[in-house]
Amino acid sequence: MSGGPIEIEANIAEESERIFQIEEIDIPFEEEILRNPYTLKSWLRYIDHKSEQPISQQIWIYERALKELPGSYKLWKKYLDLRLKHVDGLNAVRYEKEYFKVNNCFERSLVLLHKMPCIWIDYCTFLMSQCRITKTRRTFDRALKALPITQHPRIWEIYLKFAREVGGETAIRLYRRYLKLEPDHVEEYIDLLLSLNRYDEAAKRLAQVHPEEIKSLKVEPIIRSGIRRFTDQVGKLWNSLASYWIKLTHLEKARDVFEEGIATVMTVRDFTQIFDAYAEFEETVLTHKMEEAAERAEQGKENPEEDLDLELRLVRFEQLMNRRPFLVNDVLLRQNPNNVHEWEKRVELWKDNAEKVIETYTKAILTINPKKASGKFHELWVHFAKFYEDGNDLESARTIFEKGTKVNFKSVNDLATLWCEYAEMELRHENYDRAIEVMSRATVPPSNPNVNYRDENIPVQSRIFKSLKLWSFYVDLEESIGTVESTRAVYDRILELKIATPQIIINYANFLEENKYFEESFKVYERGVELFNYPIAFEIWNIYLTKFIKRYGGTKLERARDLFEQALEKCPPKHAKPLYLMYGKLEEDYGLSRHAMRIFDRATKAVADEDRFEMFNFYIAKASANFGVTYTREIYERAIEVLPDKEAKDMCLKYAELERKLGEIDRARSLYAHASQFCDPRTVPSFWTIWHDFEVKHGNEDTFKEMLRIKRSVQAQYNTEVNFISAQILATRQQVQPPVTGVAQASETATALATTDGTTPTNPMQVAEQEALKQTASASTSGPRTLTFVPSTSHQDKKDVSASQVPSNPNEINMDDDNF
């Protein structure tokens, strides 16, 4: 079919308009429909008037009427009957286009009249004559979807006729669908199967319909063999066997089959199928019995046996519903008998029945394989013992714990947890000596102590003595209720076994310190730093040195120095900074200042690169406070030599500010000139603003022009280096430069005139400056950085000069916009 199902027949209308003209006798009807276009009677009178005219004129009138009244059932029915009469008797293959036009009319009518069964029946019947099997079947399905269930029998009547005409697999599938609606018509389906030579399925259907008549087949053995063979259909097969006995009215046998199925299935899906069928069976029997009891009551009859049977069935049904959680649990445990979680669920189901709880725990610990347990098997032992403890039966609880400690669990931690729970039970009942005795038994080493703790082939009982969890609990117990000597013995045993953690080292030292064993606590720290390497040793050294200084101060200075030297000997640069600061503070507080300065100087070389700038600042601050600001010149110079460019620039600015405060203007200017090589004017405008303000305040016209010349040279250098171009553009977009006035505007104007957006300068002076910068850059890459400012050759004893005491510059000039 080439067109859509709701396509309007424009070709018919156009043809009609060409061949038909309104006659004089039609004018009254036309005037009437113009006055009342939505009146059905007017259109029907006009149609009756045209009933003797050619078919094309009648179609034209119908199309006009339906355009105005598209939801009129009467109009559509007459129009469709007319179209069906027109093609009646025509060959569906030869006149395919005419049939196609009628199909379109039906599709258009069903847009608004899809709830009318007569139109669906006419359409489906018409399609059956066209040999379009797929379209016909789909139209029948659409009709069943569109119509209410009460109208389905009318559709199924002709749908089954169509199925019988088509035959084959289509007919079988259609009848199977129909039997879901009308299962009583199975005889028709059997006749169809026989006509199609489907004897196997026909026999099955006959066996289901008349099971009591079949004597030769052994149904039960056949179904049971299927249960053993088809493990994915176990639930359905058990239900089929039970249905077989129900149809034979052997209700007790059917009940036995349901019970057997529930007790043997391995999946929850099969269990649900059987249980739902079982519950439905019991409910049906109960309903029937209750209806009989109601009839007897109406008739005034009494039947004690039937009444007793009804009560028994009610009790049995109630018990079945109450047994459901237990039955589901049985299925899951049959799937995996080592599932600890499901055993715990079963205990929870029996929580009000102590005997059943004990029976469940006992069965669980006998059934579960410790190595294959799914879940925390040791917790099952703990809960079993706690059940006896809650019942004030401590002896039975101890017996359970004792038996549990002999189980070869999956991991050592499981057994350690069991021992700890055993001791905690004794503590809850204030049996402190028993708790310590339990832990001492748990930590007894085996005859061969040289065992591999992680070897899974060795029983956990032979490896438990190296369990850190067990020893941690033991030492906490000794600290709480034991003596100092017994606690020290436990800690020493942990260190001997080499299972101590940094936290245990610290706890041991703190314990000795609290009990005034200071030297012993320091020895523990020393043993700890021998056991662990950095970075773990750093934390122990940090605590050790802090406590040592707090304890002895400067009374054992040489010993403290030796400890610091030991700590720093293998310390990586990442952790060196805090130790050097602590070492320097020790010398400042109790030693000599020059020793402290020497330590800080070592720190600037030993710390990590990211800490070096901060270390230099700290060193400079301490040197300035102890020896004056002039002492810091050498520190500044070395910092500028070793620090990266960005941090060297910041250090130059600090050094220049110091020289400015000391009145060393030339030295400060040289520092600015040296730092300028690290500062692109477009990405680091703050540096040039600082130098600009410095020259305005302390310089003259020549020095200011020299600053502008250096700025142009630096900018030209960065413009010719491709690596900086993208970074410059990004930084220029992200940063908002501060507004500048006066000399700043003049300097920017001069820079813009000197260069042309990174192109090679054409001025001879600029070429010479660029050559000098290239030589400087090559020298910096080939060797260590050399300072271009004036170095300090001798230390002068000068005092700090504040900013207010800076000598005035008689040659200071005032630059403003009028000078340019």
Automatic annotation (TrEMBL):
<feature type="domain" description="Pre-mRNA-splicing factor Syf1/CRNKL1-like C-terminal HAT-repeats">
    <location>
        <begin position="370"/>
        <end position="770"/>
    </location>
</feature>
<dbReference type="InterPro" id="IPR003107">
    <property type="entry name" value="HAT"/>
</dbReference>
<keyword id="KW-0677">Repeat</keyword>
<keyword id="KW-0507">mRNA processing</keyword>
<comment type="subunit">
    <text>Associated with the spliceosome.</text>
</comment>
<dbReference type="Pfam" id="PF23231">
    <property type="entry name" value="HAT_Syf1_CNRKL1_C"/>
</dbReference>
<dbReference type="Pfam" id="PF23233">
    <property type="entry name" value="HAT_Syf1_CNRKL1_N"/>
</dbReference>
<feature type="compositionally biased region" description="Polar residues">
    <location>
        <begin position="802"/>
        <end position="812"/>
    </location>
</feature>
<keyword id="KW-0508">mRNA splicing</keyword>
<dbReference type="InterPro" id="IPR055430">
    <property type="entry name" value="HAT_Syf1_CNRKL1_C"/>
</dbReference>
<dbReference type="GO" id="GO:0000349">
    <property type="term" value="P:generation of catalytic spliceosome for first transesterification step"/>
</dbReference>
<comment type="function">
    <text>Involved in pre-mRNA splicing and cell cycle progression.</text>
</comment>
<feature type="domain" description="Pre-mRNA-splicing factor Syf1-like N-terminal HAT-repeats">
    <location>
        <begin position="26"/>
        <end position="184"/>
    </location>
</feature>
<dbReference type="InterPro" id="IPR045075">
    <property type="entry name" value="Syf1-like"/>
</dbReference>
<keyword id="KW-0539">Nucleus</keyword>
<feature type="domain" description="Pre-mRNA-splicing factor SYF1 central HAT repeats">
    <location>
        <begin position="210"/>
        <end position="368"/>
    </location>
</feature>
<feature type="compositionally biased region" description="Polar residues">
    <location>
        <begin position="773"/>
        <end position="794"/>
    </location>
</feature>
<dbReference type="GO" id="GO:0071014">
    <property type="term" value="C:post-mRNA release spliceosomal complex"/>
</dbReference>
<keyword id="KW-0747">Spliceosome</keyword>
<dbReference type="InterPro" id="IPR056350">
    <property type="entry name" value="HAT_Syf1_central"/>
</dbReference>
<comment type="similarity">
    <text>Belongs to the crooked-neck family.</text>
</comment>
<dbReference type="InterPro" id="IPR055433">
    <property type="entry name" value="HAT_Syf1-like_N"/>
</dbReference>
<protein>
    <recommendedName>
        <fullName>Pre-mRNA-splicing factor SYF1</fullName>
    </recommendedName>
</protein>
<dbReference type="GO" id="GO:0000974">
    <property type="term" value="C:Prp19 complex"/>
</dbReference>
<dbReference type="GO" id="GO:0071007">
    <property type="term" value="C:U2-type catalytic step 2 spliceosome"/>
</dbReference>
<feature type="region of interest" description="Disordered">
    <location>
        <begin position="772"/>
        <end position="820"/>
    </location>
</feature>
<dbReference type="InterPro" id="IPR011990">
    <property type="entry name" value="TPR-like_helical_dom_sf"/>
</dbReference>
<dbReference type="Pfam" id="PF23220">
    <property type="entry name" value="HAT_Syf1_M"/>
</dbReference>
